[in-house]
Records
---
Amino acid sequence: MKPKKLVISAFGPYAGESTIDFEKLGEHGLYLITGDTGAGKTTVFDAITFALYGEASGTVRESGMFRSKYAKAETETFVELTFSYQRKEYKIRRNPEYQTQKKRGTGFTTKKADAELFYPDERQPVTKMGAVTKAVTELMGLDYKQFTQIAMIAQGDFQKLLIAGTAERGEIFRQIFHTEIYQTIQIRLRDEERRRRKDYDELRRSISQYLNDASFEEDPAAGQEFLALKKAGFEGKITDGINLLRAETKKEQERLEILDETLRKIEEQICSVSEKKGKADLLKKTAAELKAKQQELELLQPEYGRVLAEWNRIEKQEGTREKLTERIQKLELSRQSFIELDKTREEIDGKEKLLLKIRKEKKENENQVSSLQKELEDRRGEKEHNLGVPVERERLTRAKEKLLHRKNELEEQMNRVESINRELKNAQEEYRSAVDQCDEIRSVYAHLERLFLDAQAGILAQNLQAGMPCPVCGSIHHPAPAKLSEEIPDQKELKRKEQEKAQAEEKVQRLSERASFFKRNLDQEMRNTAELICGTEKNLVKEALIVTGPDELVTAADPVIEKLDDELRALEIRIKANTEQQKVLDGLGGMINRLETDLNAAGERNKELALSEQNLVTVLTMLRKHVEEFQRKLEGQNAVEIENNLQSMKTRKSELDQEAIDAKKALERFQNQNASLNSAAEALKKQIQGFEDIPEKELSETMEYLETEKAETSKLREKIHSSWHNNLRIYEAVCGQQGRMEQTEKEYVWIHSLADTAGGTLNGKSKVELETYVQMAYFDRILRRANLRLMTMSSGQYEMKRRESADNKKDKSGLELNVIDHYNGSERSVKTLSGGETFQASLSLALGLSDEIQSMAGGIQMDAMFVDEGFGSLDEDALNQAVKALGNLAEGKKLVGIISHVSELKDRIDKKIVITKNRSGERVGSSITVLGDYSADGVSVFM
């Protein structure tokens, strides 16, 4: 990219419109941008950057600050850049958003930001801020940041880069080369290492908590070793602790198996002794039971005899109980008959009352049927009388619609007449005005034409000579030649007036036709209106209305409309009365339907009541017959006497039945008890006959010894089992995590080593981070390019070199910078350079960085560059070398602009852009003068 022409208007310190024609500076070489401090030297690059990307060249300047404070209200703020790229010429015009005074009234208005990019071919221009910036980025292959890094070496920036340490230089390189991805990798590795460490510690603590509860009863030596691991927190020894626990658990299990076998043998001996001892106890117990059974049999015999005698007496009363049963059954039948008779009489009373109620309701229902029939006949007659109401309503409605249609049509027609009449009056007024104007123009034109013709005669008269023939009439005598008027119209003016006259006459004709059009429409609408008022037949009134004026026609239509309104009001009254009649008719229909429904329901109810009455009469006849039958059957019997005898017999029968039951139960109980005692005694005798003599005392002593041995062995087993169970539980809990623990520890060690490597924290190694390592490669390439310039500027004395090792192992390293002094063969820090040497190194580093960025941007070649550095710190020789290096940089087609106010540079560089700061007068603000390298006469050109 190479700028061709830059136009700056009301931008920064430039109050008006300033133009820089870069083509006057040549195709390549150095040129100087010089001027007063604060005049706006750097603003030139700001304007170029803003035109391309809509942003300033530095973070200090913002687009909202570009509006010049010196600019007049009417002056626009914009930048217009014409530049070439790949032998094609493009133009961009861009303005920021800013506040400006309103052109009308007071106050301010906002001028919106806008941009436009013009292509060298037939393509349509690109508009809008964002779209233009995107198009420029795609065209040049550089975004805003890359462009500013390549095309501008700003004041002080690269001196900071020169003397910065690894940390500060790393931050700068991160922004330039976008190496933050490697920093992200470092951070993520460190975060992953912390997470793995946390998982490892949590798993180790979890296993340690289990192992702390382990006990070692069978192997004291192993217990001492385990205690030592426990005190160390099992750090790195988790597996050893688990192996010791596994061995102890196995020993405890083997000991438990031995004790279980011992207890099993003791149990067998106890069972054998217990069996013998049980037999002895059983023999003793059986003999005692036999004696007790025999004593019970002896005591049972007297009572058994008494119960048997009582049962024999009860059996003799069986006939008495049977007779009582028969008499009770007969009395029960008689009592039931009396009960049935009472119920029947009660039912007859209820049925008789219900019969009276039904007959009363039947009478009332018959009266209601007569009443409903009469009312229904009345309503049907009333409905028949009103059947003509709907037909009348339809006729009235059609009459109303017809009147409304005529009224609306007449009113619409009157509105059209009035509207067209207004249009006609306006057209006539315009026509009269145009006629007056046309007459005036014709008068002026006629006057001018007369003056013009008179002037032509006066011109001819000036050349007449006595005795010479007139060119018009041929006379040689000229007694009264025409005089030339002082007011002579120009032929162009006369032609213009003639055109005005023709236009005025055309306008009169057009307006005349327009008025005629409205007049014809008005006449037709008046005929239509007259027909609406008088009808379609011809009569004198109708003809009079047609020839009268629109106002008279409107006046004649008013009585017709009033008459139509009166007729409509009368129809409304009749329609309203008809509506009320219709409501009555509608109500009669509903009422008749309800009466018919009620009448049908009453008839059905009357049938139901008649049927119920008939059924009740039948039931009452049957019930009265039942009463007569019961009375014949119970004749001579007393209900009270029957009830008393029945209760007495039931009581006696119950007493006898209970005596029999009790006696039978007592007999069965004694029989069962006697049989049971005899059977048990016989069984005990047989058991005693099968026993042999057993030594009871010896068996008791043996049993006591075995029980003691069993208790001691069980206690020992319980102790060992508790320890084994606890250790086994712990082992099973940690054994499942052992594989996970080994894998976790392996992964943690691996990620820890990787994080230390990427983070530059390996023990005994320099603190070179992964991001720094990548940046070192960029730095080495930058230094190779930078040293080509530095060797030139320092006459081969200095060469920059990246320091291989840090001063200490604690600080970050890898990007420190030394300088080699080839005059004395020493290597030292760049911070030891003098002011001029520092500038040379900074400028070299900046140019090397610019070359590297261009190389990374796909080999894009920038044909223009700006250098804004402090050349004032250089002595004469160093200044010569710096200019020489920049001159080499500008070889080929590159144009390099140096922004400086150093006087020595003004003498060394012929091509200049001089910026002057005006502090007073009408031209407050900065102005630009371009001194080129060629002119027609060999003198520098000022622009």
Note: Residues 407 and 563 are 10 Å apart (CA to CA).
---
Amino acid sequence: MARPQPPRPQGVPRLPRDAEIPDAVLATLSSHYPLTVIRGPRGYGKTSALLQWFDISPDRPQTVYAALTMESNFGDGFWSEVAVALTVAGLPDGGDDARTAVTEFLRTHPMPLLLVIDDMHEAGLHEDPGAIDDELVDLVKHNDQLYVVVAGRTLRPIETTGTLSVDAAVIDPDDLRLTGDGVFRLARRLGAELTKDEAQQVAVDLGGWPSAIRAGLVRSSGDGAPATIDRDVVEHYVAAMVRDLRFEKVRAFLLRTAIPEEFDLEIAREIVPEGNTARLLRNVLMAGLIYERETVAGPRYSYAPAIRSALVRMVRERHPELEIEVHHALMRYAERRQLPAQVLSHAARAGEWERALDVLDHDWDRLLVEEPLLLGEVARMFPAPLVAENARLRVAVDYLDGDVVPRDGRHRRRGPDSPALYAEVLRQHADLRDRTTPSGHDGQDVQMVLLQWGVASALHGELDIALYAFSQARAVALLDGAGKQTAVFGTTGLALVHAIQGEPRTALRWLAELELEPGQNNGILGASASVARALASVDAAGEDANETVAALPERHHRDELWALAVFVRAHHAVLAGSRDDIVAVTNELRAAVRYLRRGSRAEALLTETLVEALLAAGMADVAHQVVARVEPHQLVRVSQAKLALHEHAYDEVVRHASRVLDSRALTQRYSMECRVLLAAAFHATRQAGRAAEAFDTAVSLAQQTGQRRPFVLMGRHAFVALAASDGDVLRLWPGPHRAEPPATESRGFSALTSRELEILEALADHPGPVGIAQALGLSANTVKTQLRSVYRKLDVSNRAEALAAARRQG
């Protein structure tokens, strides 16, 4: 026979019985700890949890329930309210000293008694809450028949120090929050149509706040609409909670800290000028109203999305001046921290348009690359007359949005600032404008901003965005009847970026459209065009590569364009130069890297070709040192793959090359190099199918882009083997245009016998005569004799130099 269910204790409120209470909360209450503390903000289901526990707990002892009121804000009032509740358990009614009567009764009560005190945050609020808490803990310690459960909204001594004195359990806001599954079950009971994914989203948006969720779900189920949650009901619920707060400082803290998306203690002190900010933050955090997130810079705090939305709406409807005041404070904070994007954002939101324009003027290029989406968003806040007057604002409004700028959340490092390069672009552009258009011509101003965006993006390695900016600058110039002369800037930028990306055919096509006047050849335009033409020619292993590289101008400024010219010369030397040429260029490359900002695109390009040159010169140890110095390592992952191939670490080749191919910033240059490296690694490990697949992809890229140079990375032997006598593919080999070392009748590769060639090939896989002898079935002495002959004929002195000479000959 089922045991009869004990009735609910007297005095409990009438609440809906369909509340969703987490099972873990009910299990904790059913464990009957001597002391149980339930803490959570209003509407977190504290009382509902108690009532549901009363209904499902047949074995609980005699239960007394006391719901405190504001009378308990003083000590005498607290003991009086508890005394009234205890009369049902036998405490005599009456008496002037309620405290003495209650404590004596609870200390000596001989039978199990469960005392539940709800709204504990009211106890001793205006006197000494710690004295009340200490007295309750002492009673529990001295009477093993007494069980106490307290539920309230704030952190109290009974939770912090009391739980150290007696066996206790704490149910905090994290325990009371509804999860996605809990929201789904509640919605089913209320008749609201929610999928599990929608239920999870509701839980996230509302921070698991039980009553707020239930209020929204009740409304959505009542009108029959398929909406997941009624936002208006939720916002009214939160507003009511804020209005009911008794302390103005707490209310001000909530409203002010909801304006930024997240904050830390320092920011909170900046925007909440009154009260003990640290204590307010702790209390709000302990009440479960905000989330804490650990970062490398320390804890950060934020509200659940829908809760923050409700608080911000309340600020805008009832205290609009508060939002402006907070943004002013945040703007000053960002100025001290030298964070121009945040200064711009808060200045615009505070209506400080002059300050926002100052930031645009001073930090335009940095904002373009580091915070383009924010820049576009803020530009759309400006009044229309200001946008119409400012070319930068018009560019931000028209071009900076999610369709152009990726929303992938990539971390954007601070790239190079190149004042000399910007000044040169500005000077030559201004000269052309003065000769073709009236001063202050609107279209030319917009074009200049777009060109600056293209230059900044290219310097920061955002090549796709640079292409977009240069193409838009060219289009604006061509649409402007007076801007055809300045369209050459956009065309030159397109050619240079395509060349950097490893698309020589496209770069040369843009260069073919370029018509530079004599005066333009000597400036930034001529230098950029020369670098683009030389780089495209070297990548394509063109017959004019020697000529175009020799024509590269010498720049006086040690800027990124000068670094690109150094890269092109080194790129060509590794492909077609002698060993002396390669050794010389490695010194030039190492010197050039010192002029560049760490982590820039130019540094990566120079480092890549420096590693390749060092390997070609037989200096693998130095190449290792160069790669180890670069941070972050993913900038030179292709170099790591080249180094691994040189050392026959084929698994490492595959690992590094595959990581590059998975990168979101992959260019055609790196894509083809990685395919060639993979083909070489798979060929060396006898994985014919995978080698053919990688090689075919590389061939396809070569035919699409015009690149031929990367094939030299795999060596002529592997290339010929994978080309399989296909004449069209064999013609892609870049070797015919490479310089051959002087040959005599008895020296050079032509003088090597077939046995010596076989030993030289085996030397690539074995470090010494013993390994070669075992591989070829010869004696070690015979191999030594043959190696001496190989070194003599090739005019080298060791294995590294012999292999370098062999690579240069394909």
Note: DSSP finds 43 helices and seven strands in the chain.
---
Amino acid sequence: MKNHQYAIADYNLKIVKKELRDIHFLDDSTDDIDNPAELLKTFLLKSFLDQQSLAIRGQKIAGMLASFEENALTFLDKNAPISKIGFYNIALQLLHFEVGEDFLIDNPITKMKTLNLPVANVHDNMNLYDTMTAWYLLLNTHNKYGTTFIDDLASKGYFAQNLNSFKKPLIFNGKAMPVYDTNNLIREVVYVEAAQDNDHDGNLDLLKTEIIRPKESNKNKVPVIFTASPYNQGTNDKDGEQLTHNVNVSLKHKEPNNYSYSDIEHHSKKEKLPEPRPIEGKTRKAEQTLDREQSYTLNDYFLARGFAVVYSAGIGTYESDGFRTTGDDDETLSATAVIEWLNGKRTAFTNKTDNNQIEAYWSNGSIAMSGRSYLGTLQIAAATTGVDGLKTCIAEAAISNWYDYYRENGLVLAPGGFQGEDADVLAAETYSLKQQATEFYKNKDAWEKQLSSITDGQDRNTGNYNEFWDARNYLKNAKNIKADMFLIHGLNDDNVKPKNVEQIWNAIKPLNINKKLILHQGKHIYINAFQSIDFTDMINLWLTYKLLDVDNNADELIPNVLIQDNVKAETWNAFGEWENPDDVKTLHPSNNNELTDEFDHGRKEFKDQLSVNDFEKYCLDYKQWRDDLVLDHENNPLTNNRVIFKTTPAKEDFTIDGKVKISLNASSTQNYGMLSCMLVDYGEAYRLTESPKNLGHRINEGYLWREDSLREFKIQNKKTPYKEIAEGHINMQNRKNSYHVDDMEANEFYDMELELQPTFYHVPAGHQLGLIIFATDFENTIRGNQDLKYRISLAETDIKLPIRKQ
């Protein structure tokens, strides 16, 4: 393993002594100790549970080696000087590294550095203060299983021995500690009254909201993590499957238009709302509870640390009012309504009939949002309203513009893995109100009308950007964001593609807020249980600062941009910015299929149609289609369905940083057409696994509490010949933009520009870059299998690569 820790807060001896006392490693019994060996032995004894006998604890210490000659207990009982080597021999074993298997005795410092674990700056013969400082740092050091030593102790019951003896919240090294009893959590349900009447029944919509909070919050207010999840109350998978659209349809010529943005701009309509419900009574006691929520392990982690966690599925979900709308203002309002209630500015009731008001009296008014995908998307939506109380968003794989999720440059485009899905399919899947029979049948006709309006608005016929999509473009209101933003995204995410995070990152750059960005090598995943990076600790540092106002220097300690390397396993690099290349390299395609510095003339041609058998095969096997698209082999059905241009092998490593831009001059044999481009890394190499591997260890989120699986990207066992870097697609009639449609004639050449998905890609020396130009993308675009031929004019086609030197 290789460790990367960014969340170790600054400390000095004064802080060390105070905080070791706060967590009971220093106390009255240690004040009279004047020998470093005795102090370290005391620390070790305290590391094992009090209820274990002194003999058992001594036995555990004796089970560790301090040197080749002595076990740790014998070594410490001599009260001889503690060498730095002796300390770190013991430290590595406390961090679960095995002698002989993971490191060699008497060479621990080298191993610590190899593992990228922090080593205390102390004397070689450690004094009392050195021992305290080294122990303090060790408690904050990640172990072999991806958690800090102090969290490892907590999971074994260190704090649980006497929870009432610790301060609450307990802050250690700038982070909240798990000193709350997760077996005694309060679970309750309320109904928040939103400022909307989405189902037009003459009443403001009530939104079911589930709360899990520490018992201590009855007396002391706590911060809140809110996850807005449309999936939280269940899904209608069968409805989604039935509504999924057929993608084996023909591309068609579109009627030209001369639209400007004002022609398709969405303006929110201010409708007269019903009056709020009269308050008939007030209470602090909820009437409804919950047994088990669809939890997120990062939220579970913070429950043990004294944060309340709130879930709400929003309009059109089980036991809430309204209809699903997939991403528009109504969904945003249903998220901000909960935030406003948590901040004391909105009403909630104990049930949907009695008008008995209940306040979030236990909330300190500081709210963070968490979650991935749709859950992250609603964070972006809520943040763009500037709603009070929302202090920060931890938005993972979030959509910033729904058009860029379901469309691209005038084309209907599927999110990876979901061919045929669209906004109406997602609405049907998340309409869990259907599971409440009386409400569903009462609203059945109105819901069908609502669903039809989504189908009409999304416009799968043209794929153009229109008012429907403009209403779902959060970038328009990014200037209103007041919350600090922590964005996480996979550079290989083919579901919510990287363009979504790149756009919101660029939109918030000018804002006077704190913002962080993590780009990992995954697809559509969470990274809070990775072995190589202290993501959870960083979020702890961040939220302890943002929601508990602890001055822990989180803004400065956490790098602005963290990016996982795609070549070296377990390697993360910190940068000041993303999309900050040193140079833009322009390359031109040649007649002999090379990418060079020189212009070449001539044309390349490819077709789109396949035999029925090959077409049907690729519709069922995207991997085979992709391999055949990228690689040359005998009897390849796609040999004439794409053109490939390659660079010469790279003389040295370099990085592509940002958006690759393709200028094309092309024609189609019909008066319509689409072009797809893929940038590929060619070279036989051991690459990272496509998905993180389960390492077979469970991470505890607290004591006798929930768990997560330790994961990490590893180097594959076999070499692979290529890796896709980025791709892009365009309708040839949307050469200007996604809402302006140009006319097109068969066999006429047209200029167009296409940006591939933004990336940060390390190209090793000896590898070649390949540009593949084709039409139908079996995994993403519609698939008409039409008799179309395309020609590319080489002299007016090029690729621009944003290059950052290694």
Note: Residues 13-176 form one domain.
